[in-house]
Specification:
This protein has 655 residues and is α+β, with helices and mostly antiparallel strands. The chain has 21 helices and 22 strands. It has four domains: 116 residues, 2-Layer Sandwich (Beta-Lactamase); 124 residues, 2-Layer Sandwich (Beta-Lactamase); 160 residues, Histidine kinase-like ATPase, C-terminal domain (Heat Shock Protein 90), CATH 3.30.565; 132 residues, Rossmann fold, CATH 3.40.50.2300. A five-stranded antiparallel β-sheet has the order 2-1-5-4-3, sandwiched between helices. Helix 11 crosses helix 14 and helix 12 runs parallel beside helix 13. The relative contact order is 0.06. It is an enzyme of class 2 (transferase).
Length: 655
């Protein structure tokens, strides 16, 4: 301790600057006092520095000129303050904020120098990082690729970047202090207020929404806005940071895409409507062609005449198959094909499918076989029409492309974990096979192995495409294996409920099927005299249906109506035993007429059978929804008509 320094002054300094380094030197800057804070900051112990020069110990980074200037300031003002770089004992650099003044003795004579040094190295590092961060933010803010602004709690611009100015076409001066809604599209002006109020209540502090603005050139801009509420340390709201992303081009593209989609949907709907209308228009005359030929077949014909009539019926059914394929592919492409799953007899489906193609196989002298499987479930829940269609398509193709040998259908089943049964179908032929180069195209629409004028096999090229789409809809799959000139095997798999696990809401349908298969007896209809109303606007179709009915029920009393309004009136007056109702009629259609009839208590139980050229499940569903009991598709199958007549008009029912 320097004994020339008054004790009370020394003690006062120590207390006042306890956390700062207090360094005392003589007039030659030799260290005479070094407090504990100095030891902590510089790393030297007191005994290491006493008597040594501050220049040697502190290694202050300053030029001789700067040092001379500091001493000059000290001499002139009696004190010097500033920031300098000094070093620790380990060589690390320190930034020091220093206050230096002369020390005087009791006699007023200058006896030394006292320096109070504070280590601001960390503080300076933080300050520099903050400055750098602030500069980075400023640069990012100003040069961001999207618009960025600060809005006060009232929605007024506090700060805007260059992108927003460019986007809206206004200068910073024109924007600052004005509400952002002043530049918004009229219908969107209050959107910010809604989100602001929600954010101030603590909800949706960070939100993204779309809003329209009007530029200075009156252009409508679609802006995707991201709002973030900034709060102070106490949680009080300060301002909003808002990002403006110009999505005008994207919105325009979306609008064009939406319009294109609507146009495509309209075109697709027009195509579907056209196909449906053409189907209806073609089915109507086909109803006459097939129906009258089937009636002709029941008359006295010689062998040649019967052959001619059978060929005419076969050709008409071929045309009907093409119409059905085109209608199916149209519905598949429009995504409107739906399944109608009911309790169905699998053996009957197989029998029907093979029966349709048996004559063609015999004609070509081909063996058409079914490998019987006694473990096969009899009653399953499936769309029987579509499963039959799949089988006929695949077996029909096998027969078509096989010139000699056989076509074999094999079905196996296994129970799955979800209490369903997995049915595996195999259709194997000894036909011409499929070239490997055709494998990728086999399930495409309108594709055929032969497309030139000399092709041997006909067809539309839709069968396999429809088959695969139906299996996709049923949750199944299909595969094939083929060797050219040796044959092909198609395999497909579906899962379905068996009768034990099925929903018995289809019990009525099941009973109807059993009724048809087990009890049909047309002779029971010969003596009944039911009253039957035929509501059909087409004169030829009415005449055909009358002749078909009289073929089975010669004593039937038939009434005719050519529109729905007349059908309602006659149904009310005659109380018939059965009504055949055409769906499409002028004035009042069959659906509306049925709805009215079902509301009248006296006629509420009359069986009504729909007649329609539409073959879609959706149309059938509409008929059942209004209260119709059954459904016959034109061209009307004479056996199907027989089944309907027996079901509703057999003596037991009439009694």
């Amino acid at each position: 301790m320097d004994h020339n320094l008054p004790k009370e002054v020394y003690s006062s300094l120590i207390l006042q600057y306890l956390y700062d380094a207090v360094i005392v030197t003589d007039l030659q800057f030799q260290i005479t006092s070094w407090n504990l804070a100095a030891e902590r900051i510089y790393g030297y112990k007191l005994e290491e520095v006493i008597g040594k020069s501050t220049k040697e110990i502190l290694k202050t980074s300053a030029s001789e000129e700067a040092r001379a200037k500091s001493i000059a300031d000290l001499n002139t003002n009696g004190i010097w303050q500033g920031e300098v770089f000094q070093h620790r004992k380990d060589g690390s650099k320190l930034r020091i904020r220093s206050a230096v003044s002369y020390l005087k003795g009791n006699d007023g004579v200058t006896i030394g120098v006292i320096a109070i040094n504070r280590d601001i190295t960390e503080e300076n590092r933080i300050r520099e990082e903050f400055a750098e961060s602030e500069e980075r933010f400023r640069m990012s803010f100003e040069n961001a690729g999207i618009g960025v602004c600060l809005l006060d709690l009232e929605g007024k611009f506090l700060k805007v970047n260059k992108k927003i100015q460019s986007m809206l076409g206004y200068t910073e001066t024109e924007l600052i202090g004005r509400p952002s809604k002043d530049f918004a599209y009229k219908e969107d002006q209050n959107i910010f207020d809604q989100y602001r109020d929600s954010a101030l209540k603590g909800k949706d502090v960070d939100v993204v929404y779309e809003k329209r603005y009007i530029s200075k050139t009156n252009q409508i801009l679609w802006i995707e806005i991201s709002n973030s509420l900034v709060k102070d340390r106490k949680g009080s709201p300060l301002y909003f940071v808002v990002h403006f992303n110009d999505i005008t081009d994207r919105k325009n593209a979306e609008f064009h895409l939406l319009n294109a989609k609507k146009e495509a949907e309209r075109a697709n709907q027009a195509k579907s409507d056209f196909v449906a209308n053409m189907s209806h228009e073609i089915r109507t005359p086909l109803n006459g062609v097939i129906g009258f030929n089937e009636l002709l077949l029941t008359t006295n014909l010689d062998a040649d005449q019967k052959e001619f009539v059978k060929n005419a019926i076969s050709s008409a059914h071929g045309l009907l198959g093409i119409i059905n394929d085109i209608l199916d592919i149209s519905k598949i492409e429009a995504g409107k094909l739906v399944l109608n799953e009911t309790v169905s007899n699998l053996k009957h489906i197989i029998k029907d499918s093979l029966g349709v193609l048996q004559w063609k196989a015999k004609e070509k002298n081909i063996q058409l076989e079914f490998e019987e499987n006694h473990d096969l479930q009899e009653w399953i829940v499936v769309d029987s029409t579509r499963l039959r269609q799949i089988l006929i398509n695949l077996i029909g193709n096998a027969v078509k492309f096989t010139e000699k040998g056989s076509v074999v259908l094999k079905i196996t089943s296994e129970l799955t974990e979800n209490e369903k049964v997995k049915l595996s179908f195999s259709i194997k032929d000894t036909g011409i096979g499929i070239p490997e180069s055709h494998n990728a195209n086999i399930f495409q629409s309108f594709w055929q192995g032969e497309s030139n004028s000399t092709r041997r096999y006909g067809g539309t090229g839709l069968g396999l495409r429809i088959t695969k789409s139906l299996l996709d809809l049923m949750g199944g799959n299909i595969e094939f294996f083929s060797e050219e000139s040796k044959g092909t095997e198609f395999r497909f798999y579906i899962e379905c409920l068996t009768l034990e696990n099925a929903n018995h809401s289809n019990e009525e349908n099941e009973n109807f099927q059993k009724d048809i298969w087990e009890n049909i007896n047309q002779y029971k209809l010969l003596d009944v005299t039911p009253k039957i109303l035929i509501a059909e606007d087409n004169l030829m179709n009415r005449d055909l249906l009358k002749r078909m009915i009289l073929k089975y029920i010669p004593k039937a009393i038939l009434y005719e109506a050519d529109n729905g309004l007349e059908a309602v009136k006659m149904g009310r007056e005659l109380n018939p035993n059965l009504i055949f109702m055409d769906v499409q009629m002028p004035g009042m259609d069959g659906l509306e007429a049925t709805t009215i009839i079902r509301t009248e208590k006296s006629n509420g139980q009359i069986p009504i059978v729909a007649l329609t050229a539409g073959a879609l499940y959706e149309e059938r569903k509409k008929c059942f929804d209004v209260g119709m009991d059954h459904f016959l598709t034109k061209p009307i199958d004479i056996l199907a008509l027989n089944q309907v007549l027996f079901h509703y008009l057999n003596p037991v029912k009439l009694d």
